[in-house]
Batch of 4 targets.
Target 1
Amino acid sequence: MPSPLRRLQSQFTASAIGDADGDFVAAVHGGGRLSPLEAVEVYRAGYPARMSEALGETFEACWRILGDEDFLEACKIYSRTVASASHNLSDYGASFPEFLLARFKEHAPFIGDLARLEWSFKELFHAAAHAGLTPANLSVAVKNDSVLIFGSAVKLLSFTYKVHDLWKRDRNDDAPLTRSDWEGRQQALLYKSGGTPVLSRLLAAPEASAFKSLYEGRPLADALADAKGLDEAAARNLFSFISEAGLVASVQ
């Protein structure tokens, strides 16, 4: 049986998210000229507003593309059905990409991918940067049969739609989207190393195939050789990027 405090906390959460709980309202003392119900209504109005603000900070590109009315209405509904489970508001919204896709898939089928990209960026932004090997140290350590151990601040993402382009779109570009703006698969890398901010790089299909194999622990020579369409020049270019970006934390 929950303690009186735990029961009161549950009633408060239920009242802030949904309809005001009668027992909770009865336990509240109104402040100033506010009645108990009016005092509870302050939280019922404030909670979704604060949750919407947190979602807007994380999913800025989705907001820009969907527009104020659709995005804020989605935030309001989501905040009424999904409670925050953390004291840190930046943690709120893990399931928002799936929610947006279910709500807008008819006219914006790309919105789930775009939201997932923004959530991944947020996670990486708040994550500690790893200490990557310098190009000189990596060059000395690596052999054909080496396994590259990538740092923790590296994310390889695959998308059904061209959402990296939408994410990078000029904020002042208010031209209506056409199907050509989002149709087509993309694979992108998010990363940071040392004191760098979060950076991104689009990967061609052969590069993504090779990088995925390397990320999963395949030996260097095997990963590069098995990536279809990755010629020698492209392989050198990919390895040069991995080296210069400091993506590798160690070599085995």
Target 2
Amino acid sequence: MRRVKMSRMALRVRFLLLLGLVACGAWAQTGHPGGSGSVYAPPLVFRRAEKLKRGINASEWFAQVYDKRGYTPEHFQAWTTADDIALIKSMGFDHVRLSVNPQPMFNLREPNKIPADYLGYLDAAVKTILDHGLAVVIDLHPESDLKVRLAKDDEFVEQFADFWRALAQHYSTWDADRVFLEILNEPEFTDRYRWLGVQVKLAAAIREGAPAHTIIAAGARWSDDDELVFQEPLHDSNIIYNFHFYEPHIFTHQGANWGAYITGTGCTA
């Protein structure tokens, strides 16, 4: 059996929360001979969330590419293949979180115009995942400099919203039950109020582009769980909220080569 490239598609513990959505449930009246009864019809988002129970990150494919050659057609076609996706399916996963760095296809002068060739490579990846019976989360996963700019520059937020609207519109005709749109990976916002406003704007842009698709939202400070509790729910019934939890960090990041108290082979004493 071919090995999964674990260094390239790292497993991540992800928690999907359905907050503030219970009220969106409906009691449907069903008629039948001899009387009538009430049946609980769960909201659409709960049904879709059933497809997100066991996921795996597809990292370093369309994001976090640090090879000096960068984001090339050869990289897209060879880094993760149909065989890898088939193996993911065979291992019992039900969805892939496809990390996508928007920067290679984000033109500040015309943020709503995404290069067709780049979209073609991304479409091929999404189609491969769907063709293997998996759901896919299109997770915008930029480098820190873009997130820092979002935290400070209002005009840049508008441009990024235009980009997201165009990308969402592109995927608006794809299977809404299995294609999810994640606003931003780990927002690097220390000002929780600033992130609240930015997320509202980006979610609205995505909804304009893709009226039927489920959006995945998060709290500030790298999708911190405490920050998510602080967040006011978005005024949209088709939202899933997620948070990232790494405590104790010294344990969850053993072997990582970044961060405090971490070495290349394990944690320090």
Target 3
Amino acid sequence: MKVTAGKRKGMQAVSNERGVIAAAAMDQRGSLKSAIAKDKGIDKNAVTPEMMAEFKGAVVRILTPYASAILLDPEYGLQAAKGRAKNAGLLLAYENSGYDNTRPGRLPDLLDDWSVLRLVAAGADCIKILLYYTPFDPPATNEIKHAWVERIGAECIASDVPFFLEFVGYQENGDEKGIEFAKKKPEIVTKSMEEFSKPQYAVDVLKVEVPVNMNFVAGTRACKGESAYTRDQAKDLFRRAASVAKKPFIYLSAGVSNDIFAETLELTAEAGTNFSGVLCGRATWKEGIPVYAKQGLKALEDWLSTEGVKNIKNVNDRLGAAKPWFSFYGATSAAALAD
């Protein structure tokens, strides 16, 4: 396996000294606006760009000393990116927040006035997109999504920059937090990892959900009632999903609490999967939203400096089982993959 100079440089920029990706995510836009508005008791449209940039800036300044990289959006995050620690690389999101709700299938869209070329010029070490995806959608819907990902992969090849693809499973008009979806989730995650490992997409890192809902794993701290899988079954589902990946993959926190994500990583370690790290957002900083909304920037900074730092360290402490991204290709260093 050979990796081009630009792709290798980008991957090294967002990895730690072990070659593990211990990245923080702060590219939320619509959901962050809604959360701030709710806690402030104001309309979502009253949340200003300045508020968004201020919140993101505080997260970046205070948490990136403990992260190998930060994921931001170019809409509100570019100023914040300048305040990141020197050890932290930069991933920039390329997709619009949300999805097209005028048609079925949660179809994605790209930011109108950005391209991969422009994101790299703005300082991106890597490009990230989010895609809502399920193999159970009609083939015509998924063909649109497949072609869309192929185009972005081609753009990243042209700019010689790593492409991180985040895919999130869903079901239309269903309870995605309930037990029935929990039973479908392993197949959704596994088949998605298999699909986007194919070479035509030119994805460099798969940013994936864990293949189980921890709330339904019997015997875990997260499970408070009925279960969909035993602990051993859950570990087997982790291994099954990992076995189909043909590209390095990292886990996303998917909005769960810090405690649940930490327990998830413990289960991942027990399963022995060859994951290469995490890209963790809300599990680190989401409890700071009401602090900011009700008490302002200084209170948020104080919260981040204590609870936020504790949260990110809690995640980092569970990355001992993560494997360097280059080891996925059988290499002992990034340099060994030189093209």
Target 4
Amino acid sequence: MSLIRVLPGVILAVALVGCAQIESLAAPRSQLISGHWLQTNAASTEHVNHDPWSRFLATYLVPGRDGVNRFDYARAQASGRATLESYISMLQATPVSQLNRAEQRAYWINLYNAVTTRIVLDHYPTRSIRDISLGPGLFSIGPWDAKVVQVEGERLSLNDIEHGILRPIWRDPRLHYALNCAAISCPSLPRVAFTAENTERLLEDGARAYVNDPRGVRIEDGRLIVSSIYLWYRSDFGRDEAAVMDHLRHYAAPELVAQLGRWHAPDGYAYDWRLIDVPRPEREAR
């Protein structure tokens, strides 16, 4: 049998194994990337203007009856690209190292979310953000490792921003409720931009909303199923599953707290990677 005939089957087998492994492997570890990203100016009173991003979100995020904010990618692709590009360009031109810490945190969250939205719009329609392969590597899944933005002369990927800047500097598990992965199981984007003044409130609101939503925690056939976020980033929520349960109970509403008393650890994890798009009937109604 020739190599040419064997190769497609080998590639398919390797790709299938790779996909299965990705679901079970831990996320990239939190480790500060090289550069000057720890630099900050505590005395700075400079404010980044995130109003364009707030207006963009208010225009294209559609609150669902289930409390989940879905994104109208079709409409944004048709009429919102100029606003989005202008906002991202402004962020890229901002000397983030000269901002104070509170401004920096909001800056990086908004940059991550805006760039993620741009990537999806660039490849829309798509079934899932994981179907958008920007490399590097033949079997790369999703856009997260590609260098997609430039800040202070440094090319950065979404993974650089999340795992190399936000997680290691702020060490806050609530960041996982703020970062947009464009998937159904991802915590909802708020309809306003993060700012130095509102980030703490939005992080708390995001944590409560997600924990009390079936995407975050649900009891199904007598089993406790939680988001895979609590598996992939377990070290951010604490040392073990008991720490994860403490986190869930902290943000759970009273009824859910009572239900969680039966469990010392989740029975399973789940995540829906389908694009969090506005369903066609709702889009046509708008």
